Amino acid sequence: MLPLAALRAEAPSGNATLRAAAGGSEIVITTTARVAGSIDSLTWNGREFLNSFDHGRQLQSASNLDCATPITAETFNPTEAGSSRDFTGAASTSRLLHWRVGPDSLRTTTQMAFWLAPGDKSGSNLAKNTCVLSDHLLTKRVHIGYKNLPQVIAYDVTFSLPQGERHTQAVFEALTGYMPPEFAEFRQFNPHTGALEPLSDGPGEGLWPVVLSVAGGSHAMGIYAPPQPRPNLTGPTFGRFRFSAENVVKWNCVFRLTDKHGIAPGEYAFRMFVIVGNLETVRAALRALQDAE
Asked: Which residue, among 137, 268, 151, 291, has the nearest Cα to 211 in the 3D structure?
């Protein structure tokens, strides 16, 4: 990864393009102000890998916490790209505070919006937040290429939990990718055999890395995270989803933190790798990443 001194400091507009050669083509990553510097597009070999529709369907990070009450989905949900009410608009409730951009790398810090506005509901559950902009920060470091693996994107995130909140459970969706529906074939990487195995579209979550591809395997995306043991933390686990009504598919990488005495404010960091290429390239890179542990 480029040292920070070698990166180009810029005003935090949120609009940037990163690119690097990979597999006879280029991986091109685009971030935009519309989603507060989140990754709005990722292309390789003539195909778009993201279904960036509203302010939830990007390559991005989010968390969900319990406020010391029973945890419910989306009800205290700081989200990097913005809020549900931002929908398909040109601006984000999240605030991009800082960034540095290089030709093939990026570092951002974002003050995350709550997904729900006060008074909104997820299903029958009322939002627990009392404002639209959280005090939770998300710092990401992205670099196209890792060691001798040009089609691997190194992706590091740090969630900063603020003082003054009380939580006993936190779900860190350290990274998720919403993909076009033609990435309709779901597989999991078997770490014991190094093979890709068929996987249902769930929804579900498991211990093995997930790969989504188009029919024929010419374009695929996989997610990998090494073991990251620490007290009271479980994960990584890897989820997959098909939302037929919304015409989108999704994978995610999740860590869960539980502490009945209260989760301490501070920084919680996670390392992941996104692999882009054809199906065999993704499989081989997953094996190489596993062997490098």
From this structure: 151
Q: How far apart are CA 191 and CA 179, in angstroms?
A: 24
Residue 292 pLDDT class (50, 70, 90 cuts): confident
Q: What is the pLDDT of residue 11?
A: 52
Torsion angle of the four alpha carbons 81, 86, 91, 92, in this order, in degrees rounded to the nearest 10: -40
Tokens of 290: 């596993």
CB–CB of 77/58 below 8 Å?
no
C-alpha span between 240 and 242 (Å, rounded): 7
Strand partners of residue 179: 249
Q: Are 157 and 61 in contact (CB under 8 A)?
A: yes
Round the average pLDDT of the chain to a whole number and report it. Answer: 95
Say which residue the tokens 């710092």 belong to: 139
- The confidence score (pLDDT) of residue 23 equals 93
Element (H or E) spanning 59, and its range? Answer: strand 59-65
For the chain, the first-to-last Cα distance in angstroms comes to 18
Place of tokens 């929908």: 87
Tell me the whole-structure pTM to 2 decimals.
0.94
Domains of the chain: 12-291 (2.70.98)
Burial 45-58 (b: 16+ CB within 10 A, else e): eeeebbbbebbbbb
List phi, psi (to 5°) of 146. -145, 120
Nearest 5°: phi and psi at 286? -60, -40
Res 3: pLDDT? 43
pLDDT 10s digits, 9-41: 455 889 999 999 999 999 999 999 999 999 999
pLDDT in tens, 36-65: 999 999 999 999 999 999 999 999 999 999
Answer positive or negative: Cα dihedral of 223, 238, 204, 284: positive
The DSSP secondary structure of 185-213, one letter per residue, reads: EEEEE-TTT--EEE----SEEESS-EEEE
From 253, 283, 258, select the one nearest 270 (Cα to Cα): 253
